[in-house]
Amino acid sequence: MLMRTDPFREVDRLTRDLFGASGPTGPTGRTGGVPMDAWRTDDAVRVAFDLPGVDPESVDLQVEKDALTVTAERASAVPEGGDPLFAERPTGTFTRRLFLGDALDPDGIEATYDAGVLRVKVPVAERAKPRRIEIGGSGRRAIRS
């Protein structure tokens, strides 16, 4: 049931911190992660990805086997020929990969994008939902497994 994140994300963050790289791409050439929150409800795992300033047309959500990959691109706000005074907002391609546990149903994934937040719902597979099992014998009640 657990969702694991990209194991190299923390290494990338530490490398960027160590070398002082800015923006989504660090010195390793890999793209940086997308901030997210994830939580479980009775019927699904829900994830909210922060993608402020990202054109919805640039957001790509793909599932391959047990991996869910979010890719988005934020263009620079400085127009061509403009002379930036400050350029602190990261631009470029952002990627975040989540590995889906066996208890999730990748075929039922739903996603919406609103106000810079990509919301993804990954349903819990029917086989993984709690169910009652009847126990035979006298005076026994059904118990939850």
Automatic annotation (TrEMBL):
Pfam family, one: HSP20
Coiled coil stretches, renumbered: none
Highest rank taxon of the organism: Bacteria
Span of domain SHSP: 27-138
Region (Disordered): 18-37
Similarity remark: Belongs to the small heat shock protein (HSP20) family.
Family annotation (PANTHER family): HEAT-SHOCK PROTEIN 20 FAMILY MEMBER
Name listed for the protein in its UniProt record: Heat-shock protein Hsp20
Organism this protein belongs to: Streptomyces thermolilacinus SPC6
